[in-house]
Amino acid sequence: MSDDTLPEPDRILGAPHPRDTGHLIGQDAAQASFLESYNTGRLHHGWLMIGPRGTGKATLAYRIARFLLSQPSDEGGMFGAPERPTTLDTDPEHPVTRRIAARAEPSLFVLRRGGAGSTDSDKQRNLEAGKFASDIRVDDVRKLNGFFNFSSAEGGRRVVIVDAADEMNVQAANALLKRLEEPPERATLLLISHQPSRLLPTIRSRCRELRLSPLGDDDMARALHQALPETDLDQNALAALTSGSVGEAIRMTNLSGPAIYCELVGLFASLPRMDRSRALRLADAAAQRGAEDKLDMLVDLIALALARLARAGTLGTTPYPEAAQGEAEMIARLSPNPHQARRWAEVAQDVDAKLRHGRAVNLDPAALILDTLRHISQAAV
Question: 10 Å Cβ neighbour count for 10?
Answer without folding.
Answer: 17
